[in-house]
Each structure stands twice: as C-alpha cells, then as structure tokens.
C-alpha cells in the first residue's frame, strides 16, 4: 500500500475545480507502488490518476519528468499524459505535496512474469529509447554509480541486522562494480525503473500478451541505454527461487536488439551493468527497509532479493551467462 498523504473529499473537489474534468464521482488510494501517493479518480468525463509526489522526487525535476512523458507520447509511446488545468498548468499542489493528474492507461501488470511477457517488454524498452531521442533536456541519474557509496554509508547502522555480514559483502561488491564500470556507452533517456508493476499488458486477438502502457517515469534520467536493459533483466528474468531464467533473458535481449542492436562494448559491459543495477535497487530497498516510518502505508520490498541477483552477476563470466 503506498499512500503517504491522505486527501479529503473536500480538498480533492476544490483541487478539481481548477480543471475541466467534470464532476468527481469516486476516488480511492491505490495499494500498489512504493515511492508516491497515487489515487484512482473517476469523474463524469472518465478515469484519471492523481499522483502526490513524495520524498524521492525532487519537485524541481517534475517539469522534466512530465515533459519527457509528453514527448514520449507524442512519439508514439503509450504512457501517461499529464492533464493541464484551465490555466494550462499540469503541475500543481495538493495537501502540501506537488501533484499532477495524468491519463489512465488500460491493461494489467503481470503478477507472474511469463516468457511471453519478456519479448514484448524488450521491444517496448527499445521503442522507449527510440521515442526519447530528440528530447534534448538531460537529467543526470541521481541514483547512478556516484550515489551508491553514500547510500551504503546511510545503511551501515542497520544493514547487518537485515543479514549478518551484509555491509562487508556490499563494500566488496561495490568496489568491484565501480572499478569495472564502463566509461563510454550509448546514452539516452531511460526509464530506470521498468519493473513488472510499471508495465501494463493486454492480450492480442491471438491471446498473446502485448504491452499496452508504461507508467512511473519518476526515476527516468539520461544514462547508458544498456543500463535500462540491465534493470529489466534483473526485474523480469529471475524466478521466485531466484534462479536466472536464461530463456526469458534471451527473449528480452533478442527483441530489444531487433529494434536497436547492442554495440560490442554494451554486450561486454552487460554483466557489470547488471551488477550495478542490482546494487542500486538493493541499496534503495535496504535504506527503505531500515528507514520507513512506522505507520507508513507502504509494502516494503525485500533487499535480499537483490543480493541473490548481485551474486549471480558477480559470478557471470561473460554474456554467455545471459543467453547470448
Ligand atoms: N497512468 C496510469 N494508469 C493506470 N493505472 C496507473 C497509472 N499510474 C499508476 N497506476 C496505478 O497505480 C499504481 C502505482 O503507480 P506507480 O507509479 O507504480 O507508483 P509510484 O509512484 O509509487 O512508483 C500502479 O501499479 C497502477 O496500478
Ligand atoms: N521498483 C523498485 C521500487 C520502486 O517501485 P515503484 O512502485 O515506486 O516503481 C524496487 O522494486 O525496488
């Protein structure tokens, strides 16, 4: 459950009075998600999503995020569209938080990832990267390699209570990742959080899953394109027992490469990019695990799920471990 900021019926009606979205019919806090407070809105003109941005979103960066979403949609990607109020502004404030209303996307995110999801996801990622070209404003990755040592430092006090020896292991892993981190790979606008809960599917006429929408662009940034693929390999290609599903990985990478072939340098860097992607999500989960305020309506995610991924990638000798 991720609702950090509660809104009253009266506050919401006052907020909506600035929009031409009709009358409020119903609204409800959305159980899913981790970072922000999301509400499903139904008005007399349709369904919308109201997001109140919380701690990890810098308000000064919201114009970049919303501008990227507009650009991607204008270039054919199915992603939420910010809705402007009558004064032309989409970014506003509600209950003391930055807030925006976006269009509601059809589809369901896969609670159980099947191989049939991974090819369409790989193609959708490549389409996202292609649609992002031409959006020239850059946003540095605030959770990139430069952030991992400071984030680990903020986890030192509580880390070993999660698992004895965890901090020492992460110190060693991080040193190896940073030493091997690539310097010069193709860059562009990346999603940087394309987990299953941020990808909607509908079945096509033949019953096969097709991507119907991508959401949650609030970690998007300008970084290595192949790093976005690494994030997806971690999020989509490990089984519940934490085994790596090479068939899913091969399907995802093949579909991605059918639209944007990876360079030799990207292929060679894939294991360390996957290690870094695992480290990034392990650290944010570990921080949240030890810092989430009591009573916050959020389902914390287990950092140790990413320790197993980190160990897999550390042991991967080359791209053959990924089905290539
Ligand atoms: N544009 C949208 N259309 C339909 N459902 C959405 C949309 N945006 C968010 N949701 C719903 O809200 C949930 C949480 O959204 P998400 O952006 O993942 O939260 P967070 O901002 O915490 O990362 C999603 O899993 C989905 O169920
Ligand atoms: N995807 C991250 C947590 C952020 O989740 P979101 O719902 O805010 O996109 C993770 O799994 O650690």
UniProtKB/TrEMBL annotation:
Any one biological process term the GO annotation gives: threonine biosynthetic process
EC number: 2.7.1.39
Keyword Cell inner membrane: no
Pfam families, per database record: APH
Enzyme class, broadest EC rank: transferase
Gene Ontology molecular function terms on file: ATP binding; homoserine kinase activity
Keyword Protein biosynthesis: no
Pathway(s) the chain acts in: Amino-acid biosynthesis; L-threonine biosynthesis; L-threonine from L-aspartate: step 4/5
Keywords from the UniProt entry: Amino-acid biosynthesis, ATP-binding, Kinase, Nucleotide-binding, Threonine biosynthesis, Transferase
InterPro entries attached to this UniProt entry: Aminoglycoside_PTrfase (IPR002575), Homoserine_kinase_II (IPR005280), Kinase-like_dom_sf (IPR011009), Pseudomonas-type_ThrB (IPR050249)
SUPFAM superfamilies: Protein kinase-like (PK-like)
Residue ranges occupied by any Aminoglycoside phosphotransferase domain in the UniProt entry: 27-262
Catalysis performed (reactions): L-homoserine + ATP = O-phospho-L-homoserine + ADP + H(+)
Family: Belongs to the pseudomonas-type ThrB family.
Designated name of the protein: Homoserine kinase
Species in which this protein is naturally found: Teichococcus wenyumeiae
């Amino acid at each position: 459950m991720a609702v950090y900021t509660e809104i009253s019926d009266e506050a919401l009606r006052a907020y909506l009075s600035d929009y031409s979205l009709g009358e409020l019919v119903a609204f409800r806090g959305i159980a899913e998600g981790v970072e922000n407070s999301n509400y499903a809105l139904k008005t007399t003109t349709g369904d919308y999503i109201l997001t109140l941005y919380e701690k990890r979103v810098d308000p000064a960066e919201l114009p970049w995020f919303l501008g990227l979403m507009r650009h991607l949609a204008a270039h054919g990607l199915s992603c939420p569209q910010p809705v402007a109020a009558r004064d032309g502004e989409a970014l506003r404030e509600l209950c003391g938080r930055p807030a925006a209303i976006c269009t509601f996307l059809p589809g369901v995110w896969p609670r159980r990832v099947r191989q049939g999801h991974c090819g369409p996801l790989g193609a959708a990622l490549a389409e996202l990267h292609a649609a992002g070209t031409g959006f020239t404003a850059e946003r540095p990755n605030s959770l990139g390699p430069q952030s991992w040592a400071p984030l680990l430092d903020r986890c030192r006090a509580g880390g070993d209570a999660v698992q004895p020896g965890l901090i020492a292991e992460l110190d060693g892993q991080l040193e190896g990742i940073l030493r091997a981190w690539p310097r010069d790979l193709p860059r562009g606008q990346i999603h940087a959080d394309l987990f299953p809960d941020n990808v909607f599917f509908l079945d096509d006429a033949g019953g096969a899953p097709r991507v119907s929408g991508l959401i949650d662009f609030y970690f998007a940034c300008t970084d290595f394109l192949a790093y976005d693929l690494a994030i997806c390999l971690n999020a989509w290609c490990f089984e519940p027992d934490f085994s790596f599903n090479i068939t899913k990985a091969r399907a995802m990478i093949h579909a991605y490469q059918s639209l944007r072939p990876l360079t030799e340098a990207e292929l060679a860097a894939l294991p360390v990019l996957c290690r870094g992607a695992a480290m990034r999500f392990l650290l944010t989960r570990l921080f949240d695990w030890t810092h989430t305020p009591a009573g916050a309506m959020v389902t914390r995610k287990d950092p140790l799920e990413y320790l197993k991924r980190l160990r897999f990638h550390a042991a991967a000798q080359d791209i053959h471990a990924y089905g290539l």
